[in-house]
Amino acid sequence: xxxxxxxxxxxxxxxxxxxxxxxxxxxxxxxxxxxxxxxxxxxxxxxxxxxxxxxxxxxxxxxxxxxxxxxxxxxxxxxxxxxxxxxxxxxxxxxxxxxxxxxxxxxxxxxxxxxxxxxxxxxxxxxxxxxxxxxxxxxxxxxxxxxxxxxxxxxxxxxxxxxxxxxxxxxxxxxxxxxxxxxxxxxxxxxxxxxxxxxxxxxxxxxxxxxxxxxxxxxxxxxxxxxxxxxxxxxxxxxxxxxxxxxxxxxxxxxxxxxxxxxxxxxxxxxxxxxxxxxxxxxxxxxxxxxxxxxxxxxxxxxxxxxxxxxxxxxxxxxxxxxxxxxxxxxxxxxxxxxxxxxxxxxxxxxxxxxxxxxxxxxxxxxxxxxxxxxxxxxxxxxxxxxxxxxxxxxxxxxxxxxxxxxxxxxxxxxxxxxxxxxxxxxxxxxxxxxxxxxxxxxxxxxxxxxxxxxxxxxxxxxxxxxxxxxxxxxxxxxxxxxxxxxxxxxxxxxxxxxxxxxxxxxxxxxxxxxxxxxxxxxxxxxxxxxxxxxxxxxxxxxxxxxxxxxxxxxxxxxxxxxxxxxxxxxxxxxxxxxxxxxxxxxxxxxxxxxxxxxxxxxxxxxxxxxxxxxxxxxxxxxxxxxxxxxxxxxxxxxxxxxxxxxxxxxxxxxxxxxxxxxxxxxxxxxxxxxxxxxxxxxxxxxxxxxxxxxxxxxxxxxxxxxxxxxxxxxxxxxxxxxxxxxxxxxxxxxxxxxxxxxxxxxxxxxxxxxxxxxxxx
Amino acid sequence: xxxxxxxxxxxxxxxxxxxxxxxxxxxxxxxxxxxxxxxxxxxxxxxxxxxxxxxxxxxxxxxxxxxxxxxxxxxxxxxxxxxxxxxxxxxxxxxxxxxxxxxxxxxxxxxxxxxxxxxxxxxxxxxxxxxxxxxxxxxxxxxxxxxxxxxxxxxxxxxxxxxxxxxxxxxxxxxxxxxxxxxxxxxxxxxxxxxxxxxxxxxxxxxxxxxxxxxxxxxxxxxxxxxxxxxxxxxxxxxxxxxxxxxxxxxxxxxxxxxxxxxxxxxxxxxxxxxxxxxxxxxxxxxxxxxxxxxxxxxxxxxxxxxxxxxxxxxxxxxxxxxxxxxxxxxxxxxxxxxx
Lengths: 762, 340
Hints:
- By secondary structure, chain A is an alpha+beta fold.
- Chain A has 15 helices and 32 strands.
- In chain A, strands 3-5-1-13-10-11-12 form a 7-stranded mixed beta sheet, sandwiched between helices. In chain A, strands 7, 8, 9, 14, 15 and 16 form a 6-stranded mixed beta sheet that branches. Chain A has a 5-stranded mixed beta sheet with strand order 17-18-28-29-32, sandwiched between helices.
- In chain A, strand 17 (431-432) and strand 18 (435-447) form a beta hairpin.
- Chain A is globular.
- Chain B is of the alpha+beta class.
- In chain B, the strands form 3 sheets. A 5-stranded antiparallel beta sheet of chain B has the order 4-5-8-6-7. A 4-stranded antiparallel beta sheet of chain B has the order 9-10-11-12, with helices on both faces.
- Chain A binds chain B through residues 52, 124, 127-128, 131, 280, 434, 633, 635-638, 640, 675-676, 680-682, 684-685, 689-692, 694-695, 697, 699-703, 757-759, 762, and chain B through 1-3, 49, 128, 130, 133-134, 136-137, 150, 153-155, 157-158, 240, 242-249, 252-253, 319, 322-323, 326-327, 329-330.
């Protein structure tokens, strides 16, 4: 069996207290600095010019009119760019979002591609200048393709075995033949964009040959290594700062092209340069959720799921192979007798898509959980019951045991909170006035990923503490849980603990992504606490110490004291022989089985070093169950979510308040995933159309019902020393399916393409 | 955004004079001088590079009385053009005597926008057609006369189905105008040629082959006041707006409806529809189909369908000819259930 941690003595209980956010007051009083708030001395302002032809060759970029403006200092184009970076994209494990740098030559590969950056004394001058850049493009002869669902889309290509290992277990055709219910259906999801309120931003400042960049980032260490590599600087000559982030959701995890441009311009001009992207530019300057098609066949026998045959197709760019391989999860959700999966992509003339909250799970679990609902309707079995009866303590593809799995508990608790037992089985059987009511549900899964982390803890004799780590708080609560963990481990008041994060000068950590942040950085924080505790114990039990002679294992920490059960001593009294009265310890943690050299690559090359989902002899994931009630207007087809209940088990919950917010936020975004969000595409031009917040519809407050969350206590001794699984993404997994299933239950209409809109229901 | 000169006018006369000083004041897409009130559409369009005024005349500080306040003058309700959407939406007399005039405002935009936007500007709101709002699309006859229409054959789910032409299918996005046109509002105008009054019905134009000319306002004219006759149907009125999310979204189809009943027999009915036409749209065919009839779901549907008899649909908006009649049905039945 995999490495076992003794998680019982972690000072934060399995259900951590709902303490308030570390930065709550600073945030609501406007005191915190987001990247764009960081003060710079005499900065220049930049604006981007883009080209709106999808494929072709640049003939010329005319910057004369822009340069003629009084305030314009510089226009960066492919003609004068001196930085031609080697681009290690995230699709090959690197820190860049894409392998294509638009200023590297004259290729036009997607609409919205950056062709120039204008730098000026004022933002107004920069933007006016950008509007005056005139680009001539010789359009390619072949019609560009922007969507895998367009009429001119080509055949999908199957991912190589290096990128994806298909599941194949059991006798799939025999299992289908023996089934008493089967479905064979196609589900589709659209392109969606993150649209965080905080736009992409970069400011860069050079000093004594070094570079400081302020970037809203999910990974300051990765961004630092990218910039150090591109500008041929020693790693420690680059500093990337991202103290607070105004919404990330995956789109701020890798370095984008404009960051390189800003750094180059700042170096050339010898002044700080700052650049905000405009909302429409964020649709093509970085990541987004690609559209998908799932061909899914499923079988059930005697009320139990027996087979899954799931082929998922996503879309990617011409130059990067980005793939959301969610069939890894759908093939393992239940204890099927037979599995078969395939992952394919269609290449389009678009910017490279990328991670967006639960990237793999949102499209594939949608298909899975709707297909199961179809099976339940066909066989007359309650959807909760079928899922409970299909549970298994081993994943079905290779037969590995789950490190812990509480899906059944989630299903039962969620059903109870929601009142599922009152739901009539028959569809279209609950009309109230002009509204048709229905209830639907889903299971949720999110793999447990972990990465190496490090942290530094400084404890002074006045019992003030600084815990620092180059992790990032995306608004999720990372500051808070670090503070909470240190306070609990050292037995000190919360207010004694200062937390520093979001700065690459601090001890290295991985990306705050893949729901791995809390588990990874807090495992290192825990290690630093344990090292400090050892030092304190040594001091206390030393000869002439207040607890001299005590068994080290008997010492506990609480109320700012050390105690051996009989005697106790104020922590502040053990520092007499400590230089400066300061104890400093560095904690590190790497997933069991990870090579230490992988942490070097993380630091130097920005290579994400994830452990998990599958271990050698086990498999690890968080689970949940979600229940939704919708009302559909019989005349207008408007769909309104009336209430939602979710139950989740994700190992130790460090802080119930921040966990609740994460899960609720995920479920609410699931409403958008099901009903609102779609990036419209004009196939003629291969362009995104609704590139603003007026027309790209995100769920608004009025669309949000009451959401209840149950947290299921779960102990996992394998995932990491804390037993934490991560809760950043699971809240959105399957919500779209629960809503689609509820819409079916309300109306009797099975809709297999998102978003579900009124035109599908009238 | 292009550089421009900002001028603040204290009176309507001063505003009109300021515009007259500009050389090129004939273009509604505005390369010359433009009036500026709440700015909730215009500032957007300036930032987007769709309108590029060289001079903007801020009219929000005009002190002339007619542009301010809400009053009842005899049998008419009267509203100044500088009244904000917020002020009008929560006005007690509106809620009591003309609920549709309040509903249409409350279901529009967001709280922040309603505090900025004025009634005069509201009725002149420009289309949300994405091909109009982003000059990087090559074809838009409204933005660039003669260039063509990218909405035809493009992402036209939100396009109009009524009042379209070969040159433009952009939808008029406003809500309040539907209430005005349904209830025979009039609009007072002042300009270089003096004062005049128009039926609200005559303010907006169908696109035809000149979609860049959206209204019958003459260069330099300002809307000063709106008048709405008080009727029984106005008192029993409502607005139904079907949209993709619960708030802060434009209508996929909407209906401003007023009803006067004798028992269940319709003695007066007013219907205007939004989200489906190129201008504020009075559905007189629907009204005619109902007048004198017994109101029930069936007759309501006949009326609703009459409103869309002339509809022309495009690749992605055919649903509007089903949704539109349904919205009319919903509004009529809702009013029937209310006490008269």
